[in-house]
Design brief:
By secondary structure, the protein is mostly helical. The chain has one domain (about 30-140). Helix content is about 65%, strand content about 0%. The chain has helices at about 5-25, 30-60, 85-100, 105-130, 135-140. It is elongated. The model has no long low-confidence stretch (mean pLDDT about 95).
């Protein structure tokens, strides 16, 4: 999906979640605890996303999921997850789901996880394997895709 970048997909998902919540709020779960948890997840996702993007920038490689990587980043946030930027979007969407206070937006979170993996992560893994070979394969063995 070369015409839709990951941040745009996340924003489309966020607006879809709000729409679903307003149109079809299944199983209301609203409480101040869920609101606080949701805000926490959103903030945690933002910190993770900006920090991981900063690592790429400092390493001199591209954050463009369709571009050719010039360096394999395996330290910092990337030591625990091969995809902390996608994970950051998932955390923000999970936070939005909790803050909205109904179960129906959770469907969009699941859809985001599936789409991100199919549209971005799997093609990136093929490019990284082709570019970095055994070094990337070793990284895959010791670091999980999501968390």
């Amino acid at each position: 999906m070369k015409t839709l970048n990951p941040p745009t997909l996340m924003l489309i998902c966020a607006f879809s979640m709000i729409t679903l919540h307003l149109v079809m709020p299944l199983w209301p779960i609203s409480s101040w605890i869920f609101l606080i948890l949701g805000i926490g997840f959103i903030l945690m996702g933002m910190v993770l996303g900006f920090a991981a993007e900063g690592q790429f920038t400092r390493s001199g490689t591209t954050v463009d999921p369709f571009g050719m990587p010039t360096k394999l980043v395996t330290d910092g946030w990337f030591k625990n997850s091969r995809n902390p930027m996608y994970l950051s979007f998932a955390l923000m969407l999970t936070g939005a789901w909790l803050a909205l206070g109904s179960a129906s937006p959770l469907l969009v979170v699941v859809a985001y996880l599936w789409l991100a993996e199919r549209w971005y992560i799997l093609p990136e893994e093929k490019r990284l394997t082709a570019t970095f070979g055994k070094v990337y394969e070793d990284y895959q063995k010791r670091t999980r895709r999501w968390l």
